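Hello, quick one for you while I still have it in my head. A protein chain has come my way and I'm curious about its shape. I'm sending you its amino acid sequence along with the backbone structure tokens. I'd be grateful if you could look everything over and explain what you see. Here's the protein in full, and shout if anything looks odd to you:
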Amino acid sequence: MQRFTTGGHKTMDISQKEPDRINITKNARALIEKIDDQKFFGLNTPDTNRSELFLFAMSLGIDTVPMHLDNIYQGGLVLDKSIDDQTKGLMTALSIMTALSTAESSTDEMEKLDKATSKEVVYNLADEYANTGFMILEDELTKTKKDEDLIWSYFTELDKQYSALFSNEK
């Protein structure tokens, strides 16, 4: 818990402060600059807004173990007031999905759902998955020569997931 003085002798607990932005690491910030410079995969501004880029990175990170955020870029990626409803809804859905997948009983499920819908938990979890996704994107940026190669690798991955989903229904 960090405390700091505000003016007089009062202290403010910043760990209790509600999130006001989507956070990214300094490494992710540098990657975004590369994406913009190289117009990588159409994820650059103005072709893709920052909320969409964040969602793309978050979706890449979902099937991983999310990384804890270290070395956070102070400016963040998108201020809360600029985050569109779709992005907020998907961030909340991710948090709820994660909570439900780890619940061990119906009582535990309700407790986890209560926590999962808090703004702090929603933003922190989404930030962690997205920053993990940015690491994956950075790897793709360095090894992929063409955007077409990347799109085909994603189509192949989607095809595998689709096949696995329907082979489990039998």
Notes: The CA atoms of residues 37 and 44 lie 8 Å apart. The longest strand covers residues 3-5. Helices lie at 26-38, 50-61, 85-102, 106-116, 119-143, 147-167. The radius of gyration is 18 Å.
